[in-house]
Design goal:
Blueprint lengths: L1 H17 L19 H4 L6 H31 L3 H4 L10 H14 L13 H35 L16 E2 L5 E2 L1
Antiparallel strand pairs: 1-2
Helix pairs in contact: 3-5
C-alpha cells in the first residue's frame, strides 16, 4: 500500500510542477491557510452567519479563480493555429462561455464546408448507391416492388370501367349461378 501512496504522491507532484492541476488558485501559496475558518480552529468561536458569509466569500473567490484559469487557458488555445484548437474544444478546464468563444474562433478561422451537390438521378447511380448500403436483397426487393407497381397500374388502367354511349337499348341477359335469368 505504501508503494501506491508514493506513486500517487509523485503523480500529483508532477501535475503541480507542470501546472496542470485544476485548482491552483484554491491551493494557498506559502503553506498558510488563507481562509478565515483557521481562526475557528485556533479556539475562537464564530457565529454560524459569519461562517456562512465566509463560505460565500470563499465560493466567490473560487469561482473567480476558475474564471481566471479558464481565461488563461483560452488565451493559450487562441494562440494556437485553428486546426490545433479543435482537440481543446472539450477541455474541462474551460468555462462554458470560454468554450463557446473558442468554438466561434475555430468556426471563423476554418473554411466552411461546401454545399452538397446532388447528382442527377439515373437508375445506374441509384443501383450503385443501394449496393453498398443494403446489398443484393435490397436491390431485388426494390426491382420487384417497381415491377409489381407497374403491373398494378396497368391492370387498374385496363379494368372494365368504361361507359358505352348509344342511342339503342341493348338487352343483356344475365344468367346467375343458380339458373335464374335476369333481363
Amino acid at each position: 500500500m505504501t508503494g501506491f501512496v508514493s506513486k500517487l504522491r509523485a503523480f500529483f507532484t508532477r501535475q503541480v510542477k507542470a501546472g496542470r492541476c485544476g485548482n491552483e488558485a484554491a491551493r494557498p501559496r506559502g503553506g498558510r491557510r488563507t481562509s478565515k475558518t483557521a481562526s475557528a480552529d485556533e479556539g475562537r468561536t464564530s457565529s454560524p452567519l459569519q461562517r456562512i458569509e465566509e463560505a460565500r466569500r470563499d465560493a466567490q473567490a473560487a469561482a473567480n479563480a476558475i474564471a481566471r484559469i479558464s481565461a488563461r487557458y483560452l488565451r493559450d488555445f487562441l494562440a494556437l493555429p485553428p486546426r490545433l484548437r479543435l482537440p481543446h474544444l472539450g477541455d474541462p478546464a474551460l468555462t462554458p462561455s470560454d468554450k463557446s468563444e473558442l468554438e466561434r474562433s475555430v468556426r471563423s478561422a476554418l473554411p466552411s464546408s461546401s454545399i452538397l451537390r446532388l447528382p442527377r438521378w439515373k437508375l445506374t447511380n441509384l443501383v450503385r448507391g443501394l449496393w453498398p448500403s443494403c446489398g443484393y436483397e435490397c436491390i431485388v426487393t426494390f426491382v420487384l416492388l417497381i415491377a409489381g407497381g407497374l403491373l398494378t397500374a396497368t391492370a387498374w388502367n385496363n379494368t372494365g370501367s368504361r361507359i358505352v354511349g348509344s342511342d339503342n337499348a341493348w338487352p343483356v341477359d344475365w344468367t346467375l349461378p343458380d339458373g335464374t335469368l335476369l333481363t
